[in-house]
Predict the 3D structure of the following.
Amino acid sequence: MTVATKSPRLASRLINGILSIKPLANFAKQRARQMMIDRSDSIGVPWLERVAELRSKDLEADLEQVKNAQITYPDYYLRPFHAYDAGNLGWEAATEVEVAAYAVHSRIWQDAGADGDPKLRRSYHEILKQQIQTAPLDILDVGCSIGMSTFALQTNFPTAKITGLDLSPNFLAIAHRKSVPDPNDITWLHAPAESTGLPDASFDLVSMFLICHELPQAATIDILREVRRLLRPNGYLAIMDMNPKSELYAKMPPYILTLLKSTEPYLDEYFALDIESAISHSGFATPTVTNNSPRHRTIVAQVTDR
Protein backbone atom coordinates (compact mmCIF):
# COMPACT_ATOMS: atom_id res chain seq x y z
CA MET A 1 0.00 0.00 0.00
CA THR A 2 1.25 3.48 -0.87
CA VAL A 3 1.09 5.88 2.05
CA ALA A 4 0.16 9.47 1.28
CA THR A 5 2.54 11.82 3.07
CA LYS A 6 3.59 15.43 3.06
CA SER A 7 6.90 17.02 3.97
CA PRO A 8 7.34 18.73 7.35
CA ARG A 9 6.91 22.50 7.20
CA LEU A 10 10.01 24.72 7.26
CA ALA A 11 9.83 25.45 10.99
CA SER A 12 9.63 21.76 11.71
CA ARG A 13 12.63 20.99 9.51
CA LEU A 14 14.67 23.68 11.27
CA ILE A 15 13.72 22.21 14.63
CA ASN A 16 14.77 18.76 13.42
CA GLY A 17 18.17 20.24 12.69
CA ILE A 18 18.41 21.69 16.19
CA LEU A 19 17.38 18.39 17.77
CA SER A 20 20.01 16.51 15.76
CA ILE A 21 22.59 18.22 18.00
CA LYS A 22 22.64 15.98 21.06
CA PRO A 23 23.38 18.58 23.78
CA LEU A 24 20.55 20.78 22.47
CA ALA A 25 18.21 17.80 22.24
CA ASN A 26 19.01 16.81 25.83
CA PHE A 27 18.41 20.36 27.03
CA ALA A 28 15.06 20.48 25.23
CA LYS A 29 13.97 17.14 26.70
CA GLN A 30 14.85 18.14 30.24
CA ARG A 31 13.18 21.53 29.82
CA ALA A 32 10.03 19.85 28.51
CA ARG A 33 10.04 17.47 31.47
CA GLN A 34 10.46 20.24 34.03
CA MET A 35 7.65 22.24 32.45
CA MET A 36 5.32 19.27 32.90
CA ILE A 37 6.33 18.79 36.53
CA ASP A 38 5.75 22.48 37.25
CA ARG A 39 2.40 22.46 35.46
CA SER A 40 1.25 19.35 37.30
CA ASP A 41 2.05 20.96 40.65
CA SER A 42 0.27 24.16 39.60
CA ILE A 43 -3.04 22.34 38.96
CA GLY A 44 -3.00 20.54 42.29
CA VAL A 45 -1.55 17.23 41.09
CA PRO A 46 1.68 16.90 43.10
CA TRP A 47 4.02 15.12 40.68
CA LEU A 48 6.82 14.00 43.00
CA GLU A 49 4.51 12.90 45.80
CA ARG A 50 2.27 10.80 43.56
CA VAL A 51 5.20 9.19 41.80
CA ALA A 52 6.90 8.40 45.12
CA GLU A 53 3.72 6.80 46.42
CA LEU A 54 3.44 4.57 43.36
CA ARG A 55 7.10 3.57 43.50
CA SER A 56 6.66 2.51 47.12
CA LYS A 57 4.46 -0.40 45.94
CA ASP A 58 5.77 -3.87 45.16
CA LEU A 59 5.56 -3.32 41.41
CA GLU A 60 8.00 -6.12 40.64
CA ALA A 61 5.40 -8.64 41.81
CA ASP A 62 2.87 -7.13 39.40
CA LEU A 63 5.49 -7.19 36.65
CA GLU A 64 5.87 -10.94 37.04
CA GLN A 65 2.11 -11.33 36.63
CA VAL A 66 2.00 -9.65 33.22
CA LYS A 67 5.42 -9.89 31.56
CA ASN A 68 5.90 -12.00 28.45
CA ALA A 69 9.57 -12.97 28.52
CA GLN A 70 9.43 -14.20 24.91
CA ILE A 71 8.74 -10.79 23.38
CA THR A 72 11.06 -9.30 20.78
CA TYR A 73 10.72 -5.52 20.81
CA PRO A 74 10.62 -3.72 17.46
CA ASP A 75 13.46 -1.28 16.88
CA TYR A 76 11.16 1.75 16.87
CA TYR A 77 10.10 0.97 20.44
CA LEU A 78 13.66 1.03 21.76
CA ARG A 79 14.18 4.72 21.06
CA PRO A 80 13.96 7.34 23.83
CA PHE A 81 10.40 8.57 24.39
CA HIS A 82 9.00 11.44 26.44
CA ALA A 83 12.41 12.51 27.74
CA TYR A 84 13.19 9.01 29.05
CA ASP A 85 16.37 7.43 27.67
CA ALA A 86 14.88 3.97 28.26
CA GLY A 87 11.68 4.98 26.53
CA ASN A 88 8.65 3.10 27.79
CA LEU A 89 10.69 0.17 29.09
CA GLY A 90 11.34 1.29 32.63
CA TRP A 91 9.76 2.31 35.93
CA GLU A 92 10.49 6.00 35.57
CA ALA A 93 8.23 6.35 32.55
CA ALA A 94 5.61 3.98 33.92
CA THR A 95 5.24 5.68 37.28
CA GLU A 96 4.96 9.13 35.70
CA VAL A 97 2.36 8.41 33.00
CA GLU A 98 -0.66 9.50 35.01
CA VAL A 99 0.70 12.78 36.35
CA ALA A 100 2.09 13.59 32.90
CA ALA A 101 -1.36 13.06 31.34
CA TYR A 102 -2.92 15.47 33.80
CA ALA A 103 -0.21 18.05 33.12
CA VAL A 104 -0.29 17.78 29.32
CA HIS A 105 -4.07 17.91 29.09
CA SER A 106 -4.62 20.66 31.65
CA ARG A 107 -4.52 23.40 29.01
CA ILE A 108 -6.58 21.82 26.23
CA TRP A 109 -9.50 23.97 27.33
CA GLN A 110 -9.16 27.31 29.07
CA ASP A 111 -9.08 26.90 32.85
CA ALA A 112 -9.59 23.12 32.57
CA GLY A 113 -6.82 22.39 35.03
CA ALA A 114 -6.93 18.92 36.54
CA ASP A 115 -10.24 18.21 34.75
CA GLY A 116 -8.57 18.50 31.33
CA ASP A 117 -7.61 14.82 31.14
CA PRO A 118 -10.98 13.42 32.32
CA LYS A 119 -12.77 15.85 30.00
CA LEU A 120 -10.72 14.66 27.02
CA ARG A 121 -11.62 11.05 27.78
CA ARG A 122 -15.30 11.94 28.23
CA SER A 123 -15.34 13.71 24.87
CA TYR A 124 -14.01 10.55 23.20
CA HIS A 125 -16.57 8.26 24.78
CA GLU A 126 -19.43 10.58 23.96
CA ILE A 127 -18.54 10.18 20.28
CA LEU A 128 -18.20 6.41 20.59
CA LYS A 129 -21.64 6.11 22.16
CA GLN A 130 -23.15 8.26 19.43
CA GLN A 131 -21.64 6.24 16.60
CA ILE A 132 -21.65 2.69 17.99
CA GLN A 133 -25.29 1.76 18.31
CA THR A 134 -24.87 -1.79 19.63
CA ALA A 135 -22.97 -2.17 22.88
CA PRO A 136 -19.75 -4.14 22.21
CA LEU A 137 -19.34 -7.48 23.95
CA ASP A 138 -15.55 -7.68 23.60
CA ILE A 139 -13.22 -4.67 23.52
CA LEU A 140 -9.48 -4.47 22.89
CA ASP A 141 -7.60 -1.39 24.13
CA VAL A 142 -4.44 -1.18 22.01
CA GLY A 143 -1.57 0.66 23.66
CA CYS A 144 -3.39 0.69 26.99
CA SER A 145 -0.37 2.01 28.94
CA ILE A 146 -1.15 1.95 32.70
CA GLY A 147 -4.84 1.37 32.05
CA MET A 148 -6.31 4.88 32.17
CA SER A 149 -7.97 4.40 28.78
CA THR A 150 -8.92 0.81 29.67
CA PHE A 151 -10.68 1.74 32.89
CA ALA A 152 -12.55 4.49 31.01
CA LEU A 153 -13.75 1.89 28.50
CA GLN A 154 -14.85 -0.32 31.38
CA THR A 155 -16.85 2.53 32.92
CA ASN A 156 -18.57 3.39 29.65
CA PHE A 157 -19.18 -0.21 28.51
CA PRO A 158 -19.70 -2.01 31.83
CA THR A 159 -21.04 -5.24 30.31
CA ALA A 160 -18.12 -5.74 27.93
CA LYS A 161 -15.18 -8.09 28.41
CA ILE A 162 -12.09 -5.91 28.05
CA THR A 163 -8.48 -6.67 27.14
CA GLY A 164 -5.73 -4.10 27.60
CA LEU A 165 -2.68 -4.64 25.37
CA ASP A 166 0.66 -2.86 25.61
CA LEU A 167 4.29 -3.43 24.66
CA SER A 168 5.64 -2.15 27.98
CA PRO A 169 5.53 -4.67 30.82
CA ASN A 170 6.19 -1.85 33.28
CA PHE A 171 3.08 0.01 32.16
CA LEU A 172 1.05 -3.19 32.36
CA ALA A 173 2.36 -3.93 35.86
CA ILE A 174 0.90 -0.65 37.08
CA ALA A 175 -2.33 -1.31 35.22
CA HIS A 176 -2.50 -4.68 36.97
CA ARG A 177 -1.83 -2.99 40.31
CA LYS A 178 -4.56 -0.39 39.71
CA SER A 179 -7.09 -3.09 38.82
CA VAL A 180 -6.87 -4.56 42.33
CA PRO A 181 -9.03 -5.80 44.14
CA ASP A 182 -10.17 -7.66 41.02
CA PRO A 183 -7.18 -7.84 38.64
CA ASN A 184 -8.90 -10.57 36.65
CA ASP A 185 -11.75 -8.25 35.68
CA ILE A 186 -9.63 -6.96 32.77
CA THR A 187 -7.19 -9.13 30.79
CA TRP A 188 -3.76 -7.50 30.53
CA LEU A 189 -1.73 -8.66 27.52
CA HIS A 190 1.96 -7.98 26.96
CA ALA A 191 2.29 -8.22 23.18
CA PRO A 192 3.08 -6.14 20.07
CA ALA A 193 0.01 -4.54 18.55
CA GLU A 194 1.21 -5.54 15.07
CA SER A 195 1.10 -9.23 15.95
CA THR A 196 -1.07 -9.80 18.99
CA GLY A 197 -1.45 -13.57 18.77
CA LEU A 198 -5.16 -13.16 19.47
CA PRO A 199 -7.77 -15.12 17.48
CA ASP A 200 -9.40 -13.81 14.31
CA ALA A 201 -12.70 -11.96 14.68
CA SER A 202 -12.60 -11.88 18.47
CA PHE A 203 -13.58 -8.24 19.19
CA ASP A 204 -16.46 -5.86 18.48
CA LEU A 205 -14.46 -2.70 19.22
CA VAL A 206 -10.74 -1.94 19.09
CA SER A 207 -9.75 1.36 20.67
CA MET A 208 -6.47 3.22 20.16
CA PHE A 209 -6.21 6.20 22.51
CA LEU A 210 -3.25 8.55 21.95
CA ILE A 211 -1.11 5.87 20.34
CA CYS A 212 -0.65 6.67 16.64
CA HIS A 213 1.41 9.81 17.17
CA GLU A 214 3.99 7.63 18.93
CA LEU A 215 4.39 5.29 15.97
CA PRO A 216 6.29 5.35 12.68
CA GLN A 217 3.96 5.12 9.70
CA ALA A 218 4.86 1.52 8.85
CA ALA A 219 3.94 0.37 12.36
CA THR A 220 0.62 2.22 12.24
CA ILE A 221 -0.29 0.50 8.97
CA ASP A 222 0.71 -2.92 10.31
CA ILE A 223 -1.43 -2.35 13.40
CA LEU A 224 -4.43 -1.29 11.30
CA ARG A 225 -4.20 -4.55 9.37
CA GLU A 226 -3.96 -6.54 12.58
CA VAL A 227 -6.96 -4.69 14.01
CA ARG A 228 -8.95 -5.53 10.89
CA ARG A 229 -8.13 -9.21 11.42
CA LEU A 230 -9.25 -9.07 15.04
CA LEU A 231 -12.60 -7.39 14.45
CA ARG A 232 -15.84 -9.26 13.91
CA PRO A 233 -18.24 -8.41 11.07
CA ASN A 234 -19.68 -4.94 11.72
CA GLY A 235 -16.98 -4.31 14.33
CA TYR A 236 -15.48 -0.87 14.94
CA LEU A 237 -12.05 0.72 15.08
CA ALA A 238 -11.84 3.91 17.14
CA ILE A 239 -8.80 6.19 17.27
CA MET A 240 -8.40 9.28 19.44
CA ASP A 241 -5.26 11.30 18.86
CA MET A 242 -3.70 14.63 18.05
CA ASN A 243 -5.30 16.45 15.13
CA PRO A 244 -2.62 17.53 12.64
CA LYS A 245 -5.16 19.89 11.04
CA SER A 246 -5.65 21.84 14.24
CA GLU A 247 -4.72 25.50 13.93
CA LEU A 248 -3.04 25.26 17.32
CA TYR A 249 -0.24 23.14 15.87
CA ALA A 250 0.10 25.32 12.79
CA LYS A 251 0.47 28.41 15.00
CA MET A 252 2.55 26.78 17.74
CA PRO A 253 5.61 28.90 18.64
CA PRO A 254 8.88 27.33 17.49
CA TYR A 255 10.17 27.09 21.06
CA ILE A 256 7.16 25.06 22.21
CA LEU A 257 7.25 22.92 19.07
CA THR A 258 10.92 22.16 19.76
CA LEU A 259 10.09 20.96 23.25
CA LEU A 260 7.22 18.85 21.94
CA LYS A 261 9.26 17.21 19.20
CA SER A 262 12.15 16.53 21.55
CA THR A 263 9.92 14.01 23.34
CA GLU A 264 8.02 12.64 20.33
CA PRO A 265 10.44 11.09 17.80
CA TYR A 266 7.74 10.08 15.28
CA LEU A 267 5.64 13.23 15.30
CA ASP A 268 6.61 14.26 11.76
CA GLU A 269 5.64 10.83 10.42
CA TYR A 270 2.30 10.98 12.20
CA PHE A 271 1.49 14.49 10.96
CA ALA A 272 2.40 13.46 7.41
CA LEU A 273 0.30 10.27 7.34
CA ASP A 274 -3.05 10.27 5.56
CA ILE A 275 -4.55 8.08 8.25
CA GLU A 276 -8.06 8.11 6.78
CA SER A 277 -6.72 6.63 3.56
CA ALA A 278 -4.61 4.12 5.48
CA ILE A 279 -7.70 2.98 7.39
CA SER A 280 -9.75 2.57 4.24
CA HIS A 281 -6.97 0.59 2.54
CA SER A 282 -6.79 -1.72 5.55
CA GLY A 283 -10.31 -3.02 4.98
CA PHE A 284 -12.55 -0.47 6.66
CA ALA A 285 -15.41 1.65 5.38
CA THR A 286 -14.73 5.36 5.00
CA PRO A 287 -14.08 6.63 8.54
CA THR A 288 -15.82 9.50 10.27
CA VAL A 289 -13.61 12.18 11.79
CA THR A 290 -14.88 14.31 14.66
CA ASN A 291 -12.96 17.02 16.48
CA ASN A 292 -13.35 16.28 20.17
CA SER A 293 -11.05 18.98 21.54
CA PRO A 294 -9.30 22.05 20.12
CA ARG A 295 -6.33 19.81 19.29
CA HIS A 296 -7.66 16.23 19.12
CA ARG A 297 -9.82 14.20 16.77
CA THR A 298 -11.72 10.94 17.04
CA ILE A 299 -11.78 8.61 14.05
CA VAL A 300 -14.35 5.82 13.89
CA ALA A 301 -14.44 3.21 11.14
CA GLN A 302 -16.48 0.06 10.68
CA VAL A 303 -15.14 -3.05 8.99
CA THR A 304 -16.29 -3.75 5.47
CA ASP A 305 -17.83 -7.13 4.55
CA ARG A 306 -15.39 -10.00 4.83
